[in-house]
Design brief:
heterodimer; A: 241 residues; alpha/beta; 2-enoyl-CoA Hydratase, Chain A, domain 1; seven-stranded mixed beta sheet; 9 strands; 46% helix; B: 306 residues
């Protein structure tokens, strides 16, 4: 879906969301009268130091206003911006700062919902989508940690061999379905139904604590993570007593 | 039982040491108790698909210890196994440790040594990074300090760099490189004109511990030995753990200011010159004491702004 269509379906009664240099900001009106902050990345843009600090600044403004209004993060990005300048200036700090800002907003009572509607990868994905409280996606979204040709180069395996292995496991290959199976995606929305209704239904669900590892186990895409994490918690707690 | 709070007498190069040697040298002698140690053989269930050898601890060591008598939780990555990369088991051990830290109110030491997400289990590794970052933030919001120690062979790259950026304190040595995209990744994607990964001096200047310390990307700069890391960690435990809007607003200003001051710089040496560091071209060759003297009052800091 195109961003304009997504916004129209999300906010049939209106919004003031604008896109400048592929950065999304604004507010939408929810059915039933409430509102929701909207921000994000469009146009498969890569996320560098300049945009990360702009987005984080916007999130912190929202937190400071203290209105408790939910935040919708729309994502159609590339990976982190790969450049000498970004790394010279400390890109890791900028991306981490954005992730922390989103997590702070959630801790301060703003529901944070990520809507992945295009691409996203690597550092950009971690700093935006994975830092929201609930991540949903639209069909056709195409997240990837790394594309298969690059992966082939690094693993020194042919693309055909990688494709064959990807049939057997969702754990490494790019794609929405694979990522959903590991537990990263709460739900894939139905593009043929009103997004406004699906958003309202999601907001009506009580917020959950991080359940992505349990979800990954239930869906068969990440069988060990939840048990390992739980065992470590139990061992740490037991040895203290 | 061991005497309370006693350091190992052994001094070793942090860069050369294994993860287990680092843990042993960092915490009070004999105090480390591992959770899900190698004898449990909790290995990666995915490496076999690629005909790659597993390791019994999946390259991540987690447990509890004391540091000068104080209870801490410790995690250490083994950079010599799969580049210290985050896979499903590797990541889940750290996630669990951080969740325990939140519950117990114990501070955490993370000994980074990583190239980032393990590509053979990329989706699980990437998601683990997200879970770890969330767990760190939640623990920090409850007052827990999460201290990162960076000076290993693999550096701290990719998602590891993002995790480091969420820690309350970062201790680095000259060898401690922090970055998201590694030199080879930038060169492969953007060309050798953008970044020549074979130019090692460029790599150290752009991503190394001295540069990170000078721009406020790291808080403490130490010699490449375990005793120096231990002493810095002990001092960092005395800081007050804070994570709130005030801290992030201060970080926002700090990062905006960095772009204004240095956003046009081409090379790290230009930034060091703008900072007013005496003899910026000599920085890479300076011994620690001399470097710290020249950095004092010139470097940007991240106090209460990380």
């Amino acid at each position: 879906m195109m961003l304009a269509d997504i916004l129209a379906s999300l906010f049939p009664t209106g919004h003031d969301v604008t896109v400048t240099d592929d950065l999304i900001t604004g507010k939408g009106t929810l059915r039933g009268g409430g509102s929701i902050h909207v921000l994000g990345i469009a146009g498969e843009k890569d996320l560098g130091v300049d945009d990360a600090v702009l987005l984080a600044g916007r999130v912190l403004q929202i937190v400071k206003a203290g209105d408790g209004v939910p935040i919708l993060v729309l994502i159609d990005s590339s990976s982190q911006r790969m450049s000498r300048r970004d790394e010279l200036l400390g890109l890791s700090e900028y991306l981490a700062h954005l992730a922390k800002s989103l997590l702070l907003a959630e801790a301060q009572g703003h529901r944070t919902i990520g809507l992945l509607y295009g691409g996203s990868a690597a550092g950009a994905f971690i700093a935006t989508a994975l830092a929201t409280g609930t991540l949903v996606a639209l069909p056709g979204a195409h997240p990837a940690v790394m594309d298969l040709p690059s992966m082939a180069r690094v693993t020194k395996l042919s693309i055909d061999v990688l494709k064959a292995k990807a049939e057997a496991t969702p754990v490494f290959a790019p794609g929405l379905e694979n990522l959903a199976q590991t537990g990263a995606i709460h739900a894939v929305w139905d593009a043929d139904r009103s997004l406004a209704e699906q958003l309202l239904a999601l907001l009506a669900e009580p917020p959950e604590h991080d359940t992505r590892d349990r979800l990954g186990a239930d869906r068969g895409g990440r069988l060990k993570a939840v048990a390992i994490a739980q065992r470590v918690v139990a061992l740490a707690s037991a040895s203290r007593a | 039982m061991n005497a309370v709070g006693v350091a190992n007498t052994l001094s070793l190069s942090w860069y050369e040491a294994s993860a287990r040697q680092r843990v042993a040298a960092l915490v009070d002698s004999g105090s480390f108790v591992e959770f899900i140690g190698p004898e449990q053989r909790e290995m990666s269930p995915h490496l076999g698909i690629f005909d790659l050898p597993e390791q019994f601890d999946d390259g991540m060591i987690v447990g509890q210890a004391t540091l000068r008598g104080r209870a801490v939780l410790v995690a250490a990555q083994e950079g010599r196994f799969m580049g210290g990369s985050f896979g499903e088991v590797h990541g889940a051990k750290l996630t669990g440790l951080l969740r325990a830290a939140h519950t117990l109110g114990h501070d955490v030491l993370i000994l980074f040594d990583t190239g980032g997400v393990r590509l053979q289990e990329a989706n699980a590794g990437e998601l683990a990074i997200g879970e770890i970052i969330r767990a760190i933030v939640e623990a920090r919001a409850a007052g827990v300090k999460v201290i990162g120690l960076i000076g290993g062979r693999a550096g701290c790259y990719g998602g590891g760099g993002l995790i480091a950026g969420t820690c309350s304190t970062l201790i680095v040595s000259e060898q401690g490189r922090i970055s998201v995209s590694g030199p080879e990744v930038i060169e492969t994607n953007k060309g050798v004109e953008e970044f020549d990964s074979r130019d090692r001096a460029l790599v150290w200047r752009t991503m190394g511990g001295k540069h990170r310390y000078l721009i406020g990307g790291a808080d403490v700069f130490v010699d490449d030995n375990a005793t120096a890391f231990r002493n810095a960690a002990i001092a960092a435990l005395d800081d007050v753990g804070r994570f709130d809007l005030t801290v992030l607003e201060a970080e926002q200003l700090r990062l905006e200011r960095r772009l204004r001051r240095f956003g046009e710089a081409r090379d790290a040496a230009d930034i060091w010159a703008s900072l007013g560091v005496t003899g910026p071209a000599e920085v890479p060759t300076l011994a620690t004491e001399d470097f710290l003297r020249r950095a004092a009052d010139k470097r940007e800091t991240a106090d209460d702004a990380r």
